[in-house]
User: What shape does this take?
Amino acid sequence: MKDIDISFKLIVFFYRLKFNLRFMKKLFYLSLAGLVSLACVLKNDDKMEKENSIHSYSFVSLNGDTIELNTFKGKKILFVNVASKCGFTPQYEGLQELHDKYKDKLVILGFPCNQFGEQEKGSSDEIQSFCKKNYGVEFLMSEKIDVKGANQHPIYKWLTSKELNGKNSTSVKWNFQKYLVDEDGIWIDYWYSLTKPKSSKITKHL
Assistant: This one.
């Protein structure tokens, strides 16, 4: 009788062990599937972030050099379409002050444009001379570009199109409109000309 009892207990033990092993196996595969799914989600998120980053773009500076935006990874970038004969032209001073104060974590890029009131007719040399002489501009400046229309520069296509930046669709209304992207090249926000460079609306992000 005692041997029968022991045998029964052994049968019950091995049955439970077999059940537990099956359960653990299922649990293992479910956990593995979950980890694979999570990895795929993270990979897709990373891919989407890279696709929505402005760092894959470039521009030509006033000096004729090609500037790759990916060289500014790790810093925020403020994009500003500028003009020399505009009522907002004195904002160059505020932009230079931002450059001086936050240059360790912020890059300011000026993009001369003649599309608003034809207020930027000068050549690259004339624009550079004007900015340096009148406002001591030291931050990077692009060659003259279009920020809207059929010949819109690719950077401004990205800045103004939700399809490209993943955040918002906008249009450039006038000179000295401002766009800010983060350290990974992701769109943050934009401000019209009336918002001064040193406004808290902008500096709160710095």
